[in-house]
Amino acid sequence: MSSVRCEALLAWYGEHARSLPWRDTTEPYPIWISEIMLQQTQVKTVLPRYAAWFARFPNIAALAEADLDDVLKAWEGLGYYRRARFIHRAAQDIIEQHGGIFPDQFDEIMALPGIGRSTAGAISSFCFAANTPVLDGNVKRVLKRWHAKPESNDKTLWILAQQAIDDAANPATWNQAMMELGATRCSAKVVDCPSCPVGSYCESAFQVEPTKELRKTVPVLDLHWQVDLYLDAQKGIWLKQRPASGIWASLWTPPISELPQPSKRRPDHIHLLTHRRLHLYANRFTDAPMDEGIWVSSLDKHALPTGIHRLLATIDGISQLLPSIPPVE
Ligand code: SF4
Q1: CATH code for the domain in which residue 234 is found
Q2: Domain shared by 157 and 239, yes or no
Q3: Which of 115, 166, 173, 249 has its CA 20 to 30 A from that of 284?
Q4: Which is the closest atom of ligand 1 to the Cα of 141?
């Protein structure tokens, strides 16, 4: 891409960029957290969690010292909890291996748990002005359209992305502008070529159908789970921690048992995960719990999966019993 094309995109970004809190800083800690939160989660969902995160973990040391349970609790509602576990481990690595200072070298950043090449590229460019491209889903789409190469593989796209950022005067702004273009004018659902800043240079301008991109179809496995609810007006709800691996790893739920076959009754809630459809059947008990666990009268300190929050929201009188249930989105 010639510099004139780069300038058109950068000028557009300067005028039209959405105001987002992580764009007002070059500090690695908030940028790292925002980049991980924004993987697979929409901006509007991230915004309130982003603000709350730093009230809870103001710096990397506080994050490294926190219990994993607290970190998972702060992640509640963002989904894909593996990211929170990686963040916690990475904070501990930064303390142990880098003296508590976020590394400034690309290879060291990429060696941290949960940080891939694209995220390392974002952090390196935003914080340390490195010429390292971002290649997330939005940028891939823009590059494919811009060069009319819809079948390009990642290897080709990394080369195109590197060439483009090498031509740009400011790598940080370039990366932001490419992501912004892919999130707004040139998204999976919207292809707004008439108002696109690179419309004069794009090889696919006015030729892309504004339809949602085809996603790979992945088989979905149906699981039928009985969720045992022990509720007590004084003690609250009986919860146990899930195993450290598998679905909802390390989160807190009422005791769950898998049904060998679908129940005859309708599930109280069906929750979709990436490759799983969880049919959840609430079973209320009035006798004492037999399974291991603890009584919890407030949900302020325990991270529950969104699926369980949604299931609990279907139970009559739950808000009187557990007033700390946060609103479900
Ligand atoms: S001209 Fe159209 S297809 Fe090309 S980058 Fe812009 S919005 Fe996307």
Answers
A1: 3.90.79.10
A2: no
A3: 249
A4: 8
